[in-house]
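step: validate -> pass
step: tokenize input -> pass
step: predict -> running
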Amino acid sequence: MPTQHLDTDYLLIGAGAMSMGFADVILSEDPTARIVMVDRHANPGGHWNDAYPFVRLHQPAAFYGLHSTSLGRGGEDLSSGANLVAYYRDAMDAFVRTGRVTFLPMSEYEGDGRITSIVDAGQVTTVTARRRVVDGTYSHVLVPSICPPRYEVDPGVTLVPPNELARIRRPWERYVIVGAGKTGIDSILFLLDNGVAPERIQWIMPNDAWLLDRGAMQPDLVLDTVVAMVQSIADAAGIQDAFLDLERQGIVFRLDEDSLPHKWRCATVDRRELAQLRRLEDIVRLGRVQQIGRDEIRLDEGTIDAVPDMLVVDCSANGLAKRDPVPLFAPGRVTLQPVFMCQQTFSAALIAHLELLDLTDEHRNRICTPVPHPEHVLDLASALVTTTRNMLNCNRHMALWLRRTRLFLGHHAPAHRYLLGSGKLAMVQRRATASMQRMQRAEPAAGAAERREAVGAGA
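step: predict -> pass
step: emit ->
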């Protein structure tokens, strides 16, 4: 088949949630723009295509998805993975119907505008992007179904990704959940909610993490929550003091109230889910798994017995690893990254709006800087300080757009509370920045541990 050539304004690498959010704003705000999107999946939606069937949003649908299109029932709805795949498929169909978007699924971007089909290497498309190549894959989201474990598994051990839990056809004596992140939490809750006794579940938890209370993230409260979090950073003597203050306010949880977690990854649960997790007694805190055998499981800090009839559920993929930030805007290129803590789809929409403003790239990069996905407790301070700075800068350059954007957390607050919250953030920003800098100087060992863990495996 001869090579096909396409001329376009934007070439988007990836059709995941961030790329779709970027394209949505470009199409809505620039009626002349044309886009080519390429993705390895058959459907848009990125990692939602590979996620386990019982996955749901962890935070409300009110501020997830596309700026132009409400998601699910809106509000506090925790849309399912199936809903999200259908939502993005419908959105892509609408994009294509405009005549301004070409979608190349089941295809690989090889660089320099060259795209090849995954199913037929003879199908080659070359693309010239007049404005930008937009990298929507930089966050590199991984889910267990496409990411094999980084530990040894002996023959005879039954190990599955969480996707297989919904297809179990017989009971197992023991269910071993490997991984302390939200995927591991979801897998445990799935088993408990389907009647598995807690004593039959073993949770291998390499690291405890602070958990965000979903109740504090509801649309009418979330801006107040952000203000409270920044205020806690500004007032705290150390990062754990800030977390303890937030715990007293009911904004964060910890599974074990006798220890202080060292991880913070924005994992979100509600009080019912926390109570369910606390029913588990067999929680193994001996570091990461090195090897799983039929008779024993070897970990960083010790060995535990295995049982012959066990189902090991691998939840150790680091879904959103902390990556070194790069400039959002560069000549001929945009690299999509979060600019608000743990708010990927809103960040992509905001970057698209910045792209369409009559500004230099240097100016755009001054308005917003990336907020890497947090890993360690210290990241809460830096992520909040950068988020607040970005928000205040955006209020100066695009206040009306920001306020009207449903994906923006502040959109859902009444006008008087929005103005009050924005004012409080402006007043506390300098103190929060100084406090963050003191914390970073006072805890160099924690910072070094964070960097080491960022390149390790598992949650």
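step: describe -> Residues 446-459 have pLDDT under 50 and may be disordered.
step: cleanup -> pass
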